[in-house]
Write a structure and sequence with these properties.
- The chain has a domain of about 240 residues: Hypothetical protein af1432 (Orthogonal Bundle).
- About 45% of the residues lie in helices and about 10% in strands.
- The protein is built from 16 helices and eight strands.
- The strands form three sheets. It has a three-stranded mixed β-sheet. A three-stranded antiparallel β-sheet has the order 5-8-6, with helices on one face. The chain has a two-stranded antiparallel ribbon with strand order 1-2.
- A hairpin with a 2-residue loop joins strand 3 and strand 4.
- Helix 13 crosses helix 14.
- About 40% of the residues are buried.
- It holds the Pfam family HD.
- This is HD domain protein.
- InterPro entries: HD/PDEase_dom (IPR003607), HD_domain (IPR006674).
């Protein structure tokens, strides 16, 4: 009796392996397509090599939304945002090799949970990023491909104006991706990102839009500011900052080591420390018991005071002009953000 035959493979496919998808984030495909902007990016050899280094891979395990990832659905990673910024640079300045590399490396210094405990123990993600660019494993990758680590570090330091680091109060590509990506995650993006992109330009180092598109961007900017000042961000961020300080004060953990943790490693450290374990569990599983009010906590009441470091409100140009001149009503909406509270009293009920 003959044995049953196995299904035959298609001719020439006997040793075929599974191929990577277009959104692969380790440089295995020649073309990376950003899923938000739907921009196809032809990765250069240095870009593919950088995506395989530990500082870039680590960003895949750091939440862009910081501590608010436990209270919202903003669970996308800092690497997803980084690749979005690369896609925008590839769209507007495709031949600018240095700017593309800076786009990939601009966030490598971020702490776990991103901005949540920026400034704790003097930690500054900008300074850390500049240091990482000039050390292993980033420096040898750059030098192998003929790119000066010092030039990248200078660009990251913000001393030179660029579409990523302009400090003029105008909307840059880094913040553009943040606002639009956050808007999609929060369900408040009412425009297709690819269509939105088609209505944007880059004037020198700032994003420019027609009046209607500028109004859409201002809506996203204002919504992001309200998110930052909401219970959803202030509550968990204030707890995690407290936990980080307690962890550093009660264990031998050095601030520099804390800064290079991923989010899962940070939660594990909180759970492994007797001082932080209980509140670490509460902020993840009993967050609804957290109370947040505007203003400082009185000394005779339970709770603590939390202050936001800043509210982002960078404005697009409107048809190449500053928004105050071309669309004063939109400028007034952004100015109104200055009235949002930035100091809060937080307590467990």
């Amino acid at each position: 009796m003959d044995s049953p035959k196995k299904p035959s493979s298609p001719p020439g496919n006997e040793t075929a392996a599974a191929g990577p998808v277009p959104t692969n984030v380790v440089g295995l495909t020649a073309l990376f397509t950003d899923p938000l902007w739907r921009i196809p990016v032809r990765l250069s050899p240095v870009e593919a090599a950088l995506l395989r280094t530990e500082p870039l891979r680590r960003l895949h395990f750091v939440a862009h939304g910081g501590a608010s990832t436990v209270s919202t659905l903003q669970s996308y990673s800092r690497l997803e945002h980084t690749l979005g910024v690369l896609a925008l640079v590839a769209h507007f300045r495709p031949e600018d090799e240095l700017l593309r590399v800076v786009a990939l490396l601009h966030d490598i210094g971020h702490l776990p949970l991103s901005h949540t405990f920026e400034g704790v123990a003097g930690l500054d993600h900008h300074a850390i990023g500049v240091q990482l660019v000039q050390a292993d494993p980033i420096r040898p990758v750059l030098e192998e491909h003929g790119i000066s680590p010092e030039a990248v570090a200078t660009a990251l330091g913000g001393s030179a104006r660029s579409p990523l680091t302009n400090r003029s109060g105008l909307l840059n590509l880094d913040h553009l991706d943040s606002y639009v990506r956050s808007g999609r995650a929060a369900g408040r993006l009412d425009t297709d990102p690819a269509a939105l992109l088609g209505r944007l330009g880059l004037e020198d180092t700032a994003v420019s839009a027609d009046p209607e598109t500028a109004a859409s961007l201002v809506d996203l900017i204002c919504a992001e500011a309200r998110l930052h000042t909401s219970w959803d961000n202030v509550g968990p961020a204030s707890v995690v900052r407290r936990l980080a300080r307690q962890l550093l004060d009660s264990t031998p953990l050095a601030p520099a080591r804390l800064a290079r943790m991923t989010d899962p490693q940070l939660w594990t450290a909180f759970d492994s420390c007797a001082v932080t374990q209980a509140e670490s569990t509460m902020v993840r599983y009993e967050l609804h018991q957290l109370k947040v009010e505007a203003g400082s906590a009185p000394p005779d009441r339970s709770g603590w005071t939390f202050s936001l470091r800043k509210i982002y409100s960078s404005a697009p140009l409107v048809e190449g002009q500053r928004i105050e001149v071309a669309a004063p009503e939109l400028a007034a909406e952004l100015n109104a953000l200055l009235a949002l509270p930035t100091t809060f009293r937080v307590r467990w009920s």
